[in-house]
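Bench log, entry 3. Co-assembly request; chain sequences pasted below exactly as received.
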Amino acid sequence: MTTNEIKSSKGADCIFCKIVSKEIPSSIVYEDDKFFAFLDNNPVVKGHSLLIPKEHYVWMHEAPDELIAETFITAKKIINLMIKGVGCDYVQIEIIGKDVPHFHVHLMPRYLNDNLPQLKNIQYENDEEIKTFASKIKNTPM
Ligand code: ZN
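Structure output for the full assembly:
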């Protein structure tokens, strides 16, 4: 994606906004009135999810401070769901920013002994495994 494409992108053309409105289906792991989280289509680990504010902001620095604070409080909730539901030891957080122009936080379940020197794309065994991972996170009691 070029800089001009990022700058000109509007909420209406945004893939993540379409995922929030459910125009594009996703494997939902969390939803409340302000935030939405779903399994990443290009995972680097199983359970790799993206947390986004429902409101469209291209960059984190454009979002109001309160929303940024709430984003990380929500990330903490989902991390706890992942630890309980998926059984990971911790969750790696990344904000990269340029791949899809809608502010999002990567949440990647990790294991202390996973010995991943570098995160590379992985694939789920099948659609059933995708559903299982989404459900393990989504349906874990808080
Ligand atoms: Zn958007």
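Residues 3-115 form a domain with the HIT family, subunit A fold (CATH 3.30.428.10). The first helix runs from residue 3 to 8.
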